[in-house]
Amino acid sequence: MASPPPVILWFFQDLRLDDQPAVAAAVASGRPVIAVFVLDRASPGHWAPGGAALWWLHGSLAALAADLAARGARLILRQGPIGRVLAQLAEETGATEIHGGRAVEPWLRQILADLGPALARRGVTLVAHETRLLFPPERLKTQTGGAFSVFTPFARAAFAAGIADHPTAPPAHINASAQDVPSEDLASWRLRPSRPDWAAEMAEIWTPGAAGAMARLERFLASGFSTYDRDRDIPGHASTSMLSPHLHWGEISPRRVWLAAGHAAPKGGKFLQSFLNEMLWREFSAYLLWHHPHLPEEPLRAEFAAMPWRDDAEAEAAWRRGETGIPIVDAGMRQLWRWGWMHNRVRMIAASLLTKHLMLPWRAGEAWFWDTLVDADLAANAASWQWVAGSGADAAPYFRIFNPVLQGRKFDPEGAYIRRFVPELAALPNEFIHAPWEAPHLVLAAAGVALGRTYPRPIVDLALGRARALDAFAALPRRAA
Ligand SMILES: Cc1cc2nc3c(=O)[nH]c(=O)nc-3n(C[C@H](O)[C@H](O)[C@H](O)COP(=O)(O)OP(=O)(O)OC[C@H]3O[C@@H](n4cnc5c(N)ncnc54)[C@H](O)[C@@H]3O)c2cc1C
Question: Is 198 an active-site residue?
Fold first, then answer.
């Protein structure tokens, strides 16, 4: 008897077997499964993953391949434009169905929109499941049936809709296709740096893959979580979940995280609400990208197109290197380089310095974060940068400019975070660690700090930078109501 045609199980940013609807559907089809990941560096309009993201991807693919192997299946690796590779693989293997995830990224949406009908003409069905979000982007609507542009009512609608408590367990066994489908070799993709190995510390902090994600979730729920609402803004405490790269790559389903948080706090509480709210910021970012496909490239508030952003390569490089002379910003930018991750509060402070005091374009910051974050996410990164810059739909008002010194004193009062990432300031007393230029000479000397030599003087006068930004903002064409 001829064996039934296989189904293709295509992975993208949903690199897990647990609570993964495409996996469940492929297995439920009862047909032999061919699992594939396609590395796409070439499709038009594609934001190809940056260096830190590729480092993560290597670990994540290795973990997924091991999880598949434990269930009797192999992960096929191919490179090229996703649409073309999938169509070719279907032809090569005689598959008549492809199960994968939906996308919010405009370039991938376009590929899937074109691919579906093209495959259908050849008798192949493409089924795109919601593998990455709690709420498909079309689901939540305003009372008049429109799209939300403000977070609070979006979150209210999400809480009202609720999350169904029926995650699917990972399959115990996968009926893998017996075909000998050629695969590329992960090592040959060279996703990890060789020399210099800038990822050494990242390897100590992170464990990419589904098991690493679950361990991170359990650790967070056992500590951190119950004080999350109080401590989530303190960068010197390990008080947030650090799940963002795992969620970005889909190594854990947002539903698992949401439900596990609820089960760990059966009586509810402010900490639970606060955490779920942040999970909804992730949803809202994806929702914004879905409804505004130009989000990564163009300001949502059209008047910001006239913003006279400065062009100052030297200041931009100092910001990237964490040498602005503003300690909390430098600590954040160095954490980013070393860990591929930065605490959310400091992301906001660093982004505010770039776009306001320095008046450099938010797209420059967006691009640097894209290359250096292990959680670099087209939706969350673009939405957050626009939020900080003031050009987003639901943005912090432009005139509300973070003072990085006051922010540092408030959220890192003992300077623990600064001391960790800017060791040349470690011996300064708390009083001066956020603004070393205010310290008397004797204090600096006693701490071994020589401004301009061991640590930079501030590259911008905070008061003047603030005034310049406010003037530029005031001169913008009037906002539409
Ligand atoms: C300028 C800037 C750029 C950013 N770029 C990214 C990015 O590329 N990728 C990314 O995942 N997050 C981004 N964020 C959002 C946020 O900083 C990170 O999601 C958060 O720091 C991750 O840490 P955590 O996992 O410990 O978060 P937790 O506080 O534990 O929150 C739980 C989860 O909720 C989601 N989340 C939390 N805050 C936000 C937020 N403000 N926006 C969207 N989702 C959120 C994340 O998936 C996170 O893992 C950015 C923020 C700023 C200000």
Answer: no
